[in-house]
Amino acid sequence: MSAQPEESPAPPPAPAAAARLLDQLNADRRAEQWVPAFERDWVKALEDSRHTYSLIPIHEVIRTWQLRLAAAPAVDAFVESGRDDSGFVALEDVLGPRR
Fold it and tell me: Cβ distance 41 to 64 under 8 Å?
């Protein structure tokens, strides 16, 4: 039996990952909304990193926005399909209000 965790942490993003991500966000049709949101998240992550001396907040912002960008085509396809999603339960109803 090993004392190692079952999940290993994700490797850190490449040094230029944020710049490449910003280029991809600028090229996306949602750039008007997404670029300012990314920049707000980025500034907050930089500030958090300065206070904690950790790069984890920066890495989390990059990973989160990479996942959003990667999921966008699937979300677009679902919305364009006209499927009715009104039969689902809102996450807030299950988990309660966010604090």
Answer: yes
User: At a CB cut-off of 8 Å and minimum separation 6, what does 66 contact?
Assistant: 13, 17, 21
The number of C-alpha atoms within 13 Å of 26 and in the hemisphere containing its C-beta is: 7
> 45: which residues sit within 8 A by CB, 6+ positions away?
57, 58, 60, 61
Q: What is the pTM of this model?
A: 0.73
With 0-12 CB in 10 A as exposed, 13-18 as middle and 19+ as buried, what is 15?
exposed
Residue 20 exposure: Cα atoms within 13 Å on the Cβ side: 8
Q: Give 10-residue mean pLDDT values along the chain (99 residues).
A: 66 88 94 95 95 93 93 86 72 69
